[in-house]
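Researcher: Re-running this chain for the archive, since the previous output was lost when a drive failed. Same request as before.
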Amino acid sequence: MKNIQIGDNVTAFYKTGKYIGEVTGERPGAFVVKILAVLKHPRQGDLHNPNDVDVPLFHERKALAHRERANIPEKTVKPFDGSVPDYNETLIESYLTLKGELEADSSPHAGKSLETLQSIQREYELMYNLTF
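Model: Regenerated structure tokens:
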């Protein structure tokens, strides 16, 4: 992946979310990426038991914050060519997409995920002054 340089815009997967960001550094096997937009909101729940509700901790996952830096595995980072959309707009769009998918699903996992999304929405509204 040496064709990616510091300063390049990239798409990057982190846990179950997908982002557009700028590479600000390198680490062994990873790039440090500054988050600029959200393409896919992270799914809720346990990463190791993706559709299970009966887990010790059902994780509430917020999207990485605007300009937050994350160490992202090299293999999940790809070049991005295009204009970077507004962070807040992409956060709302990706959140609403995930919420719609969960509302169309009658499984217990979807119900529990919708509950965690409600508290995340309140945090987003406070953090970014957003209206959903």
